[in-house]
Amino acid sequence: MNTESPKDAPLQITDANQNPAELEHLLIQHLRRLEDVEKGGNTLDAARVRLDIAEVASQLGRVGEAWTQARLAFDTFLDQESWQDAVEACEILYRTGHDSAITALINGVWLGVTYPIDPQTSIVMLHHLVDETPIETEGAAVAAAAAHYIAHLRAEDDERENLSFMTSQVLARVAKAQRNIEEPDMISMWMDMLGLNDPARLLPALGRMLDAVNGDNWWYDRDALRARLPVN
Fold first, then answer.
1. 142, 205 in Cβ contact below 8 A?
2. Residue of 64, 123, 56, 125 lying closest to 90 (CA atoms)
């Protein structure tokens, strides 16, 4: 991730082609930068550097280090209500493969759906959820439909077209697995049958799914966050 980019930029990842020596050098640079930023007292900037550290540590297979740095960053973003950053932290936590990776994913999905962050980030998280859910289950359909809904709700113009194409492909994959259907009209009928085209049914279904998977492993008080929303 590039901390020089705007805080609402889409998710970015380290170049997968970098060799271990290059990654080690990059990690040292990030650690030195963290020291400098912390001296300046900017907690948000320091947390973003921690995400850079976590990204590189994860690439090096240092799961514990990556998790610790990204979790510290998440806590800062949560305190500062920097929701885009918080969801990006959850995405990195998920990709570490840590034992609590699914917990990180679920916490990130809830924030990514609740707050109007960059739609691409929310969609990435929901598609991770599709991948983690047995494709023949209703949960996979709900997660895929929620991603499609967000693409239409938050994106505009070319971005909406591009994201909607991507989310429709994932929806089609789920529909094919569940009902062996591929035609757009049949997929639309299938979505209507399950209530996936109706946000009043879709979003509560997603909420129930997240509760079922995550149990009590929430990193924040959802009721308190809901109470501070403009419309709750």
1. yes
2. 125
Name the residue ranges covered by the structural domains of the chain.
Answer: 1-99, 118-215
Residue that is written with structure tokens 């971005």 in the block: 159
From residue 100, how far is each of 28, 103, 124, 194 by CA, in Å? 26, 5, 18, 31
126-185 pLDDT tens trace: 999 999 999 999 999 999 999 999 999 999 999 999 999 999 999 999 999 999 999 999
Instruction: Find the helix packing angle between 43-59 and 83-95, rounded to 10°.
Output: 20
User: Is residue 41 left, alpha or beta, with left meaning phi > 0 and alpha meaning psi from -120 to 50?
Assistant: left
Structure confidence by residue, pLDDT tens digits, 80-127: 999 999 999 999 999 999 999 999 999 999 999 999 999 999 999 999
Write out the chain in H/E/C secondary structure. CCCCCCCCCCCCCCCCCCCHHHHHHHHHHHHHHHHHHHHHCCHHHHHHHHHHHHHHHHHCCCHHHHHHHHHHHHHHHHHHCCHHHHHHHHHHHHHCCCCCHHHHHHHHHHHHHHCCCCHHHHHHHHHHHHHHCCCCCHHHHHHHHHHHHHHHHHCCHHHHHHHHHHHHHHHHHHHHHHHCCCCHHHHHHHHHHHCCCCHHHHHHHHHHHHHHHHCCCCCCCHHHHHHCCCCC
What gap in Å lies between CA 105 and CA 111, rounded to an integer?
10
Predicted structure pTM score:
0.90
